[in-house]
Amino acid sequence: MRRATSPQPGDQLDLFRPCPKTPQWAHLPPEVRQQTVRLLAQLLRQHRRGLFTVAHEQEVCDE
């Protein structure tokens, strides 16, 4: 029967690899920055609509 080989004593697992660097906003291409701003604005508008809907539903339920 064949035994599974274990890592050598000097081998290090890749558990604690350094985190990748976050890209700097100024270094991103203009198209990426523009699309990011559009998506964030869309997200904020959707969130605001959701808050308005919840507030309006609560008013209706109280009556």
Written description of the protein model:
With 63 residues, the protein is mainly alpha-helical. The protein contains one helix and no strands. The mean pLDDT is 79.
List SSEs in N-to-C order: H
Radius of gyration: 26 Å
Strand count: 0
Low-confidence stretches: none
Largest sheet: none
**Beta content:** under 5%
Q: Structural class of the secondary structure composition?
A: mainly alpha
Mean pLDDT: 79
Name the shape in a single word. Answer: elongated
Number of helices: 1
**Distance between the amino and carboxyl termini:** 77 Å
Helical coverage, percent range: 40-55%
What's the short story on this structure?
With 63 residues, the chain is an all-alpha fold. The chain has one helix at 30-62.
Name its key features.
mainly alpha; 63 residues
Write the layout of secondary structure elements.
Blueprint: H1 30-62
